[in-house]
């Protein structure tokens, strides 16, 4: 089988398995939200937000550096260079985990307020759980860098099944609490990390013997430790900039000024949307093929094909998310009350807002890929103050504005930073990867439909079945406007026919209808 065909086959199989992991992840989150006591779920949601912050602070850009440079390290065929890189990465990761863990334990011991939130739960278990999640992120990056898509997908599926099994056992034994749930997650994540590393070590000789096409793009500059450190630092600055207004940081910043229920509702919605986001084109495919885009760009010295691929995936995700927003908005309160807890129903309006913010994070990730190919992550340092300013605004305005502040300022941050980044990264690369000339009309169409939907529901005082009918009509309206606007470019359509030949004639016919 040709390398390209094998890659497509592996990506397809991995995508199917990841969809299974997604469904299991959604099941896990719904099970936890419904089965746990509200107070315990609030503690778990705060701990989960803390895990995201821990991973972001302790990352040092190492995970992204692994996935970015692994193809070229393997392609070099030099065992000494690979061994030196592995030792270097292990030392950096050990230092980051130890230093951030010690700092976190000191903070937990110094602030009684945090101890009150933990309600006597073992802080050492919580910190160890954070560290294990960080290592799990590294294991995923290692698999991605080696293009072992099926390996990571299979291990992820097993880890999720184990986690759900342990959680179900705790629920049946009436012992489902925040700390026991964290212990279950710790065990399942630890096993997955050990499995990935063990399998990679056992297969190390096959990687060294392989002669992939990436050998053709071996670059001495990419094997330079200084270049790798510079890239990791740029990635770290990039992720730190996003961290300031990430949903986890916002939940923690506004938690003191909000009642218990709103932060818990935000935590649940964000968890569900984050899981669903992994099944969308950018996270499912663009991130997975980042090593391929890197090597291809170095082969021809151009980003033309990478731009087209990223542009096509970005448009696909935009259409799916906007369709979801239009469909869910009229019935968001009903969905949140049924799927989660009835106390969350009044906060249904946060679902479309967080979905829009999640789309912004996907765009941000596309720009990270563009910057990674060009080795220009340093530009992210210039926008970090914007995120910090928005987070400060969340902290100081939440007592006056309530939940509005926790939703408004992160949205403002997303729009401002994406506009600045798109301009700074050039962009023949970013302008086609984020083709706003074709995307803005889609946003306008979705906003118009949402406005009409809101006015209709308010004026007619629709409930239940009426809102569901309105949801269906809104979705049909968006589809009609999609065929009128036709956001896909001819070059992207031709690329889809070449890159995804197994989509079938029906899908290509549908894609042709939205191409101009």
From TrEMBL:
It comes from Microvirga mediterraneensis. It comes from the Bacteria. Its main location: membrane. The keyword Manganese does not apply. This is Oligosaccharide flippase family protein. It is a multi-pass membrane protein. The chain crosses the membrane at residues 12-35, 41-62, 90-114, 178-202, 319-341, 347-367, 379-396, 402-420, 440-460, 466-485. Keywords: Cell membrane, Membrane, Transmembrane, Transmembrane helix. GO terms for cellular component: plasma membrane. It is found in: Cell membrane. The keyword Cell membrane applies.
